[in-house]
Amino acid sequence: LEGRTIAADRVDVESRLRRSTRQVTPSDPETVDAAATVQAIITSMRDLSTFTPALAADIAGVIAQGIHRRDALLRTVIYDAAAAAEVFTQAAALLAGRPRADVLTLAAIGLYYAGRGSEVNATIVAARTETDDVNGLLILIDQAIPRGLHPERIKEALSDLTSEERASDMLGADYPPYDN
């Protein structure tokens, strides 16, 4: 993503956050493979052309396995915040309701880490329009923005969750590496 304009203006940001007319149903949390999903996220982070609607469904299915699995996905943001945010934004476009809000939360974290505050705000608004029952992670980011909390402080606050050991524990497998 280096050197490429991500979002030229608010209209561009809002269009990227719109729901697609093609929606997917989240994968069954009982059968979706969390480790394989993380590997697919990492692959799409390296080459966005590999992103598929099935990955969006799998991301939502992994999150539905529980908060520990959602938090395991946060490690991808440590690898490359902007690329992870792009994958999560694309996935969210194919989802609706609470699954969309949960995936947008991960996108917002990535955008926050990448220092793209105006996009974070728009992402939070999009997530909040999907459900009245927003998750604590979204609330944390939503409160950090008006307080001017530097992205490094959020990274510090979430560092226990994003360590390789902790992320592997939450994933239930060795966390795939990100070799750029």
Summarize the structure.
This protein is mostly helical and 180 residues long. It has 11 helices and no strands.
Q: Could you please describe the fold and organization of this structure?
A:
Helices cover 64% and strands 0% of the residues. With 180 residues, it is mainly α. The radius of gyration is 15 Å and the shape is globular. The chain starts with 9 loop residues before the first helix and ends in a 9-residue tail after the last helix.
Main attributes of the structure:
180 residues; mainly alpha; 0% strand
Unreliable spans are: 1-6
Structural class comes to mainly alpha
Helical segment tally?
11
Q: Roughly what fraction of the amino acids lie in strands?
A: under 5%
Strand segment tally: 0
* Main sheet: strands, sense, barrel: none
Q: What is the alpha-carbon Rg in Å?
A: 15 Å
Helix content: 55-70%
Cα(first) to Cα(last) distance is 12 Å
In round numbers, the mean pLDDT is 86
Helix and strand run:
HHHHHHHHHHH
What overall geometry do the principal axes of the alpha carbons give? globular
What secondary-structure arrangement, pairings included, does this model have?
Layout: H1 10-17, H2 34-46, H3 53-64, H4 67-73, H5 75-79, H6 81-93, H7 97-113, H8 117-128, H9 136-144, H10 151-162, H11 164-171
Helix pairs in contact: 1-8, 2-3, 2-6, 3-6, 3-7, 4-11, 6-7, 7-8
